[in-house]
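Researcher: Can you fold this with pyridoxal-5'-phosphate in place?
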Amino acid sequence: MQRQELIRLRTNLLEKGVKLIAVSKMKTPAEILEVYESGQRIFGENKVQDLVPKYDFLPKDIEWHMIGHLQTNKVKYIAPFVAMIESVDSFNLLHEINKRAAKVNRVIDFLFQVRIAKEETKFGLKEKELLEILDDPAFRQMKNVRACGVMGIATLTEDMEIVRDEFRLLKKAFDRVKKKYFSADEHFREISMGMSGDYEMAMEEGSTMVRIGTLIFGERFAPPPMLRAGE
Ligand SMILES: *Cc1c(COP(=O)(O)O)cnc(C)c1O
């Protein structure tokens, strides 16, 4: 995407109150810097082992969002700097984030990842599991994490009506949770949904954060298998 187009996209979103997360997974620091130069400051990565070296190498005013499944044993590597963890999908993980944030004297913003896709493979909390966390007194005791809303990943399908239905599910879940648990908490306000192919629809359905990779950076190409051996 050309610099002017990107600036126009970001401005359009901002006018509608929607934040742009530039998803830079599998992109090089040079490619990220080019987007940074256009004024973009929020970037999303889905793997700790990529996020840490990119944080080290790139300007420190970048806000890094973790958007992929996060293993508890890797929280410690990103706790010192991550701006938001969008993918909290278990109470256990949240305990670990709270613990690691306390160690580095931080309060880490996070989103609950809610399972909206039909596919069994997708991570995320069922709404019932989310309510169990929110009802647990231990949740209220956590002083080093701050709940900022919900995130969802829709089914990968050409059928846009399925995707729209899933976005609606996430919006409804957000509304119920907001009303019952966070009505007086101004920080609980984000609905992270929408990617390159469906972000406009997501915004129609109430998204406040869109996670866009391909549209900004171009297609991602998987590295050849020999470079993936360490995974
Ligand atoms: C890769 C990814 C995106 C961006 O997808 P694009 O189709 O490239 O815009 C958004 N969210 C998550 C969780 C991702 O892993």
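Model: Folded with pyridoxal-5'-phosphate in place. The pocket of pyridoxal-5'-phosphate is lined by residues 23, 25, 46, 67-68, 153, 195-197, 211-215 (CB under 6 Å).
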